[in-house]
Design brief:
With 301 residues, this protein is mostly helical. 42% of the residues lie in helices and 0% in strands. The radius of gyration is 20 Å and the shape is globular. The two termini are 29 Å apart.
């Protein structure tokens, strides 16, 4: 799930100040960017830093991301804890967009755990086929629904220890549900989160649970859920896996991996995705404060 840590570019690139980086969307686009507190001379690599310096830099990145993405949110459509749990299980090895395009028909057919527990597997498989791995996912969904029916009165439990006992539910899924359906702080270590926190040198860990523990030690508990959203948003929109849009990144002055991607501002802007690139988001029903366009329904383009 994880990727290797940041690789310094072969050619030295000049690290921009925040004033030189345009903020494309969000409240921070309406005010001048703050002066960089971390600078590296042109031609030099990222200098070693103490843990205290790293923690301060990490928290500053979080504040910068909060300004850049004041509308950060879970990108799965849901109306209740059960729908979020199901959608998160379906999101494995596929995009949130594809899940959001698939779940309307699924929840129309099986609106409650009792309904889903009684589903005919072959019929459910056809409904969730677009998300991939549909046989394994069907088995998990029917199994967790039966567990909710038999052990929790048809309700999704609000404790990590209970959630991870459900078929197909690990810590990542449990933290998504706890943080966004129950308001219980949690750090969600998905592919994007793990990749970025290693790229930013907040951790060198590859194991998701170890990543979660190390990042939890950097930030106050009250920040965990929103930090997860902001980091994932940034990974999907700007700091891509293969070619980060470094030249359009507002936190470039704080990033040890600056220069791994495209540094030319004009070329970098063309790499921006979703609302940052003027394209639809992943949710068919996004929050009211989302500045972009809703995603199209399945088959609508």
């Amino acid at each position: 799930m994880g990727e290797q840590g940041a690789i310094r570019p072969e050619k030295a690139t000049k690290r921009p100040t925040r004033k030189s980086v345009e903020r494309p969307v969000g409240k921070s686009a309406r005010k001048p960017a703050a002066k960089a507190t971390v600078k590296a001379a042109a031609g030099s690599g990222w200098k070693p830093e103490s843990r205290l310096a790293m923690v301060r830099r990490a928290r500053k990145i979080n504040r910068e991301l909060a300004e850049l993405y004041p509308y950060a949110h879970p990108e799965l459509d849901f109306h209740n804890p059960f729908e979020l749990l199901v959608a998160t299980v379906l999101s494995a090895q596929t995009t949130d967009l594809r899940v959001n395009q698939t779940t309307p028909a699924l929840f129309a057919a099986y609106p409650t755990p009792e309904d889903m527990a009684a589903a005919v597997p072959e019929e459910m498989e056809e409904l969730i086929r677009p998300t991939g791995f549909f046989r394994a996912k069907t088995k998990s969904l029917i199994g967790l629904s039966a567990a909710l029916r038999d052990n929790y009165g048809g309700e999704v439990p609000g404790r990590l220890a209970d959630l991870v006992k459900l078929p197909g539910v690990g810590r990542k899924t449990a933290n998504v549900v706890l943080g966004n359906a129950f308001g219980v702080p949690g750090i969600t270590v998905d592919t994007h989160f793990g990749r970025l926190v290693r790229r930013w040198k907040w951790t060198e860990q590859e194991d998701p649970e170890k990543v979660e523990a190390e990042i939890a030690a950097i930030f106050p508990k009250s920040e965990w859920t929103m930090l997860s959203h902001r980091v994932v948003f940034h990974g999907r929109r700007i700091c891509h896996a293969r070619k980060p849009a470094c030249g359009a990144c507002p936190i470039a002055p704080l990033c040890p991996a600056y220069g791994e991607g495209e540094t030319d501002p004009e070329k970098a802007r063309k790499l921006l995705k979703y609302e940052m690139g003027g394209q639809p988001g992943q949710r068919l029903s996004p929050p009211a404060d989302y500045p972009g366009r809703p995603a199209p329904a399945l088959g609508a383009g």
